[in-house]
TrEMBL record, chains A, B:
<dbReference type="GO" id="GO:0009749">
    <property type="term" value="P:response to glucose"/>
</dbReference>
<dbReference type="InterPro" id="IPR022953">
    <property type="entry name" value="ATP_PFK"/>
</dbReference>
<feature type="binding site">
    <location>
        <position position="324"/>
    </location>
    <ligand>
        <name>substrate</name>
    </ligand>
</feature>
<feature type="site" description="Important for catalytic activity; stabilizes the transition state when the phosphoryl donor is PPi">
    <location>
        <position position="215"/>
    </location>
</feature>
<feature type="binding site">
    <location>
        <begin position="255"/>
        <end position="256"/>
    </location>
    <ligand>
        <name>substrate</name>
    </ligand>
</feature>
<feature type="binding site">
    <location>
        <begin position="263"/>
        <end position="265"/>
    </location>
    <ligand>
        <name>substrate</name>
    </ligand>
</feature>
<feature type="binding site">
    <location>
        <begin position="216"/>
        <end position="218"/>
    </location>
    <ligand>
        <name>substrate</name>
    </ligand>
</feature>
<keyword id="KW-0963">Cytoplasm</keyword>
<dbReference type="InterPro" id="IPR011183">
    <property type="entry name" value="PfpB_PPi_PFK"/>
</dbReference>
<dbReference type="InterPro" id="IPR035966">
    <property type="entry name" value="PKF_sf"/>
</dbReference>
<feature type="binding site">
    <location>
        <position position="94"/>
    </location>
    <ligand>
        <name>diphosphate</name>
    </ligand>
</feature>
<feature type="site" description="Important for catalytic activity and substrate specificity; stabilizes the transition state when the phosphoryl donor is PPi; prevents ATP from binding by mimicking the alpha-phosphate group of ATP">
    <location>
        <position position="189"/>
    </location>
</feature>
<dbReference type="GO" id="GO:0047334">
    <property type="term" value="F:diphosphate-fructose-6-phosphate 1-phosphotransferase activity"/>
</dbReference>
<dbReference type="Pfam" id="PF00365">
    <property type="entry name" value="PFK"/>
</dbReference>
<keyword id="KW-0460">Magnesium</keyword>
<dbReference type="InterPro" id="IPR000023">
    <property type="entry name" value="Phosphofructokinase_dom"/>
</dbReference>
<keyword id="KW-0021">Allosteric enzyme</keyword>
Length: 556, 556
């Protein structure tokens, strides 16, 4: 099999739509602090998000190092402008709009401040580092990808640098091409790995520094210093456009409930943001389901209740948003799946259903209320390790069937009289590779430029952080946050593993509270908003998303 | 059950996104001929598209009437400007972007030229006419819907005015509110019905005139005089945006084949247009499949061949477009379904499969190669008449399974070595209710304005037609085409029924030929184009679609 992306074709001008071409020609703004003379200054020593003692043991060299701020300087940067750097960059994990601009920003920094430097793009993700597969990224090479979506400039991959053997391969590559620095663009896992790599290089007395960049459309890599992960803004706007269209359709047709599943497995930020942008009748937030220890029946009943209430008001249609990872948040489903994996590993599933006696009573009850197709899927479709394939369950279709069954039963009791028709949607891939919004385009460019500045000033083990995002681009701040300061440990197979904790939807946070204050009205009345196509010029083109603005306190 | 849309909530300004609001404030352009003094002049007598003798019998009053042109006049219109008209308008069938602008254009005509007139919006489609359910459409009422997607101003419905009883109800409504005219906004069926209604009113010596307007995102209502149906332009642009994003994703990820099913059952115009906009690796056009009498196996083999060829070139990913109505174009599938309906009506489907002996050999062979899920669906899911539910088959998933099976078999022969992973998509509802493109916004406004002029000049049984669409809006022409001239007859249950023939993809037409000249290159090389979000200002905002321009000879 050809390596991931190894075969992607270089873009050429004939491949561009007019809109893409016009974005290509749009110049990027830099925060004032990066545009003018600046210096990198250290903050106070840092600790860790949790278990600092364990993190200190895992990162003996880097633990406690200060975060850095980039601040205006009266004169030229203290960094040596005659230095020529050899820097690598890698894209890790799923696509997010803006990745190409991180690379553009990094390249522009090197061109502006360390003329004669070389930028290596490792191909196909971390595997490219281990196999020393790269392309030299020149201005000409990078230009066709400016402001463009996708990761196809150098492609990405999901391999990890984890084992001693893999670390050794990475070291060999760093030595072979004499790398001064490496920028890792990725999510929480990739940034954890970036920090391990930084630690490893330092420990081996190698000069190669490592800087991370926060990427994920899921929006679950963020903290006080790293207020947003790039791609979330664009992806949510694209999903919200489509949800808004579906809403207008629902209201016009007057006879369908649209169940929309949205990408985002581990956290429900995308679903919450899309809800704030479009005001659907029902929004399920995984974190709330988990906090309230809700069952699948609870969720089904809630949806059914709203449908019945709407029927009383004369509305026989609606729009319902569901996060991709919903069932991962339901404890009883996790329990059922664990029991099924156990049973399927040892027993034959007999037609007569004798095997079901091995299920606990709660799991059996849950299994019995699942739609037949889902039951089948749970029993038949397994991953290479023999485990049930939870990720393959089409949650929106499962809920439609469960709501249908519940409505039938209410109909028999005379509690519901309408005809229920549903349409299902999954919005995912359409959003990962859209043209970056102005926000993501500028944010990424600043992240990349700042990453260059951090490397140039000798930093390692930091994640590029751009702040003050509720202000215009000119006023944004820049710096680098100690990756160890974002970490906690998890116990896996008896060992402590460092992890950057995923940022979940906070039930006490401003975005969820805003949603909470409105959802009852949205449920029964119709307050649909259709955001329309993502704009690059004119109204709304420079606004970011509700989640970010609410978290920054910049929106009521 | 609440009548379709009867309960839709009026839009208010708080429901608008900024983009919607900005569209609301955008003024609409009218063709010069409608903006200045004009008169309506008749062309030569018309005939019918087919079987003129039968059409003459079905439309004894209207058959042969001339089409009309709206042309500049030296002085004020010959139509009486002191006349006050009572005009009704109705939306019929599925949503298409721009419907609200037809109504805006009609209202503006009445305001401009027949001050004091009243516009009645029949609610929920033709049922609103029969039940005399309407709302008076004032400037204030209509304003919030200008340039907005959806049909929620008065909603739509799929009822038809067909039986003598239903015609009587329509007559009663016309008499009750003293209707001078009625504008029917709909597809081929609705316009056929509009003409029957016009004939009926004339025959009964009633004054009510009827004018049609060409609506359908499917693009299958068009002729020389009616070069486009509205909504097609916007819907294709929205689908193409998403397809473009999926392409960038495919190229970046390098490991998925994306099978994209696109709305459009009867004809494959949408699929062809999206293909011309985005250059996918494979596009299946139903009309070509039918013309070549291809089997499902032929289609599967074609897709598999391209996948294998791409694998040899190092590409293990791609994008494939499939029209929603594909299997309706495959004769053997139609045959199988007919046989199944017959068998299922009379026999029990036994587990042992004895029932299969009743299938003809060709149908049995086809049934056996279908994926299990599809076999089940064909046997179990039936509509209220007991018929197999063809419309519910997810063609893209069926093809994925069939291609998978074929690739497995080639793998065993050593002809294919890669891992095949596929993602499925269906783009439909997201496109029907988008914000109208500038083209659809202006086209609809002109259609509605012209419909007003036709009514005012005493015309009936015409469809509003706006032409010269490759020129700027100012130079567009306007007029009305005799609906009978678009008709042919079909024999149904032994009787002749008038029909406006659906315009299919012409294999000798310019759009298909353009596609044909490029598809081999698109298949093996990657020529993806990602059109990006629909623009209302700036580049591409005023261009229409490839199909229209190629058909008009305005694009090579």
């Amino acid at each position: 099999m050809a390596a991931n992306g190894a075969t992607a074709r270089r873009r050429s001008s004939s491949d561009y739509s007019e809109v893409q071409a016009s974005r290509l020609g749009t110049s990027l703004s830099l925060p004032d602090v990066l545009r003018n003379s600046f210096k990198v200054v250290d903050g106070p020593p840092s600790s860790a998000t949790g278990n600092p003692d364990e993190i200190a043991k895992l990162f003996p060299v880097l633990f406690g190092q200060p975060s850095a701020k980039i601040v205006p300087a009266d004169q030229k940067s203290t960094a040596d402008s005659n230095q020529r750097l050899k820097v690598g960059v890698v894209l890790s994990g799923g696509q997010a709009p803006g990745g190409h601009n991180v690379i553009s920003g990094l390249l522009d920094y090197l061109q502006d401040k360390t003329k004669g430097s070389t930028l290596y793009g490792f191909r196909g993700g971390p595997a490219g580092i281990m196999k020393c597969k790269y392309v030299v990224l020149t201005t000409n090479y990078v230009y066709p990808y400016r402001n463009q979506g996708g990761f196809d400039m150098i492609c990405s991959g999901r391999d990890k640098i984890e084992t001693p053997e893999q670390f050794k391969q990475a070291q060999e590559t760093a030595v072979k091409i004499d790398l001064d620095g490496l920028v890792v663009i990725g999510g929480d896992d990739s940034n954890t790995n970036a920090c391990l790599l930084a630690e490893n290089f330092r420990e081996k007395k190698m000069k190669t520094q490592v800087i991370g960049c926060p990427k994920t459309i899921d929006g679950d890599l963020k903290s006080e210093e790293v207020p947003a992960s790039f791609g979330f803004d664009t992806a949510c706007k694209l999903y919200a456009e489509m949800i808004g269209n579906v809403m207008v359709d629902a209201r016009s047709t007057g006879k369908y409930y649209h169940f929309v599943r949205l990408m985002g497995r581990a956290a429900s930020h995308i679903t919450l943001e899309c809800s704030l942008q479009t005001h659907p009748n029902i929004t399920i937030i995984g974190e709330e389901v988990a906090a309230k220890k809700q069952t699948l029946k609870n969720v089904t009943d809630y949806i059914t209740d709203v449908i019945c209430k709407r029927a009383e008001n004369g509305y026989n249609y609606g729009v319902i948003l569901i996060p991709e990872g919903l069932i991962d948040f339901i404890p009883e489903v996790q329990q059922l799946i664990a029991e099924l994996n156990e049973i399927l590993a040892h027993d034959v599933v007999d037609e007569g259903g004798m095997w079901k006696k091995k299920l606990g009573s709660q799991s059996l009850k849950l299994f019995e209320i699942l739609p037949h197709a889902i039951q089948k899927q749970l029993l038949l479709e397994r991953d290479p390790h023999g485990n049930v394939q939870v990720a393959k369950i089409e949650t929106e279709k499962m809920l439609i069937e469960m709501v249908e069954t519940e409505l039938e039963s209410r109909k028999k009791q005379g509690l519901y009289k309408n005809v229920f028709s549903a349409q299902s949607h999954f919005f995912g891939y359409e959003g990962r590779c859209g043209l970056p919004s102005n926000f993501d385009a500028n944010y990424c460019y600043a992240l990349g430029y700042a990453a260059g500045a951090l490397l140039h000033s000798g930093k390692t083990g930091l994640i590029s952080s751009v702040g003050n995002l509720s202000a215009p681009v000119e006023k944004w701040t820049a710096g680098g946050t100690a990756l160890t300061s974002l970490m906690d440990v998890e116990r896996r197979h008896g060992n402590f593993k460092p992890v950057i904790k995923k940022a979940m939807v906070e039930l006490e946070g401003a975005p969820f509270k805003k949603f909470l204050s409105m959802r009852e009205e949205w449920a029964v009345k119709n307050r649909y908003i259709s955001p329309g196509p993502l704009q690059h010029v004119g109204p709304t083109s420079n606004s970011s998303n509700h989640t970010l603005m609410l978290e920054l306190g910049a929106q009521a």
